[in-house]
Design a protein that fits this description.
With 245 residues, this protein is α+β, with helices and mostly antiparallel strands. The chain folds into two domains: 95 residues, Alpha-Beta Plaits; 137 residues, Pseudouridine synthase I, catalytic domain, C-terminal subdomain (Alpha-Beta Plaits, 2-Layer Sandwich). It is built from five helices and ten strands; from the N terminus they run βαββαβββαβββααβ. Strands 1, 2, 3, 4, 5, 6, 7, 8, 9 and 10 form a ten-stranded mixed sheet that branches. Helix 1 packs across helix 2 and helix 3 packs antiparallel against helix 4. The protein starts with a strand and ends with a strand. This is tRNA pseudouridine synthase A. One of its GO terms (biological process) is tRNA pseudouridine synthesis. Keywords: Isomerase, tRNA processing. Belongs to the tRNA pseudouridine synthase TruA family.
Length: 245
Amino acid sequence: MRNIKLTIEYDGTRYQGWQRLGDSDKTIQGKIENILTQMTRTRIEIIGSGRTDAGTHARGQIANFKTDSKMVLSEMIDFLNRYLPQDIVVKKAEEVPERFHARYNAKGKQYSYYIWNNTIPSAFERNYSFHYSEELNFELMNEACRKLTGTHDFIGFSSLKKTKKSTTRTIDELSIQKEGNLIHFTFVGNGFLHKMVRILMGTILEIGSGTMKLEIIDEVFESKIRSEAGMTVPAQGLFLDEVYY
């Protein structure tokens, strides 16, 4: 039995997220599994490094699957990219040890979030950024990023209710780069809770626009109450860039 690791890029605009949903064919996982099943003539289930929400994109999602197929890797990539929709692309296929697991072996992830910061929206960036027209204070946003970096219990910055599992995560890097009207935020950490990047992003924006005070970050770490943090920004500005192993 072979274990195949895939590196996948996708535009999430048309899909209901990564995870297969019943009979729906509007998920990334479902689309890829259907083509793999055709290719191998056996029912294939793939394991992703994690779920991405409806509308979220990926430059480097990782998945693995087990197969008895003797097909060479380059032929697998050709087959997948020939029959998958054009907004899902398999960039790489590798044979990995049998015990490799895309989710359990992941050591960290990098996400990007893009803000279109102008009073006029962009016709071209609308599916790949959040249009936020408020004037932003970069000094305050950088200070917010510094406060959020490090090891903290991020439950107040997630959509999770109480859970027995640990909600402590480490953010190694949270940086801001301005590219014209587009502002690029990079999040690197050992793991992210459900909607955590989108809620952190909303909090940083509300601090940058003066809607929230900088101290709210420490207050939410203390209170662990989601409603005290900023808004959940829309999914279309979010990209999963890379998964670290």
